[in-house]
């Protein structure tokens, strides 16, 4: 993992933020863009409830965070952005870079991003040969290669299970 000054990727963070603000997820609003090897935007998405306006009631409300993602009607922004890229720019996904922004309760980007934790996204990022992942914060952003990102996502859960 490499710590990046968020100013250096400000342009991408701003796009992610404006996309996240349009999210209809009640729990946490996310924005993701995928940029190809040459820096061109090839996909963008927020987390999107499928088949309903909002995920309400969310069946995960009383469940532990990070578990039973399949019960939420919202597809994760990473997943959705990858699916759109597969549909619209399939030849440009390999070696691309994914940027992720999460808004806090106040609707702003937090100073620091969280740690990798979503294995259902990390494994499809890896599967599609996306090269790098930025988890973006307002001050600092964290850069991972997708293999590392996937491993750390699994480690997060192994740690919670006391299996590390
Ligand atoms: Zn939900
Ligand atoms: Zn996810």
Strand fraction equals 15-25%
CATH class: Alpha Beta
C-alpha Rg (nearest Å): 15 Å
Bound molecules: zinc ion
| Unreliable runs | none
CATH homologous superfamily descriptor:
Cytidine Deaminase, domain 2
- Give the helix tally: 4
Number of E-type strands: 8
CATH topology, which one?
Cytidine Deaminase, domain 2
Binned, the helix content reads 25-40%
What is the terminal separation in angstroms?
19 Å
SSE pattern, N- to C-terminal: EHEEEEHEHEEH
Net shape = globular
Entry keywords:
164 residues; alpha+beta; six-stranded mixed beta sheet; globular; binds zinc ion
Please, could you describe this protein's structure?
- 29% of the residues lie in helices and 23% in strands.
- The protein has a single domain, classed as Cytidine Deaminase, domain 2 (3-Layer(aba) Sandwich).
- It is globular.
- The strands form 2 sheets. A 6-stranded mixed β-sheet has the order 1-8-7-6-2-3. A two-stranded antiparallel ribbon has the order 4-5.
- Helix 3 (119-127) runs antiparallel to helix 4 (146-160).
- By secondary structure, the protein is of the alpha+beta class.
- It starts with a strand and ends with a helix.
- The protein has helices at 10-20, 77-88, 119-127, 146-160; strands spanning 2-5, 30-35, 41-46, 48-49, 74-75, 97-102, 132-136, 140-145.
- The structure holds zinc ion (2 copies).
């Amino acid at each position: 993992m490499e710590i990046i000054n968020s100013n250096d990727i400000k342009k991408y963070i701003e796009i992610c933020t404006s996309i996240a603000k349009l999210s209809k997820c009640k729990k946490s609003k996310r924005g993701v863009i995928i940029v190809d090897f040459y820096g061109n935007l090839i996909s963008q998405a927020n987390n999107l409830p499928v088949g309903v306006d909002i995920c309400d009631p969310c069946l995960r409300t009383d469940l532990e965070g990070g578990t039973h993602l399949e019960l939420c009607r919202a597809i994760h922004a990473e997943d959705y952005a990858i699916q759109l890229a597969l549909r619209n720019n399939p030849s440009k996904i390999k070696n691309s870079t994914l940027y992720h922004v999460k808004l806090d309760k106040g609707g702003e980007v937090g100073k620091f991003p969280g740690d990798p934790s979503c294995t259902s996204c990390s494994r499809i990022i890896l599967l599609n040969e996306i090269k790098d992942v930025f988890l973006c914060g307002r001050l600092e952003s964290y850069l991972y290669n997708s293999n590392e990102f996937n491993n750390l996502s699994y480690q997060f859960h192994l740690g919670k299970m006391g299996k590390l």
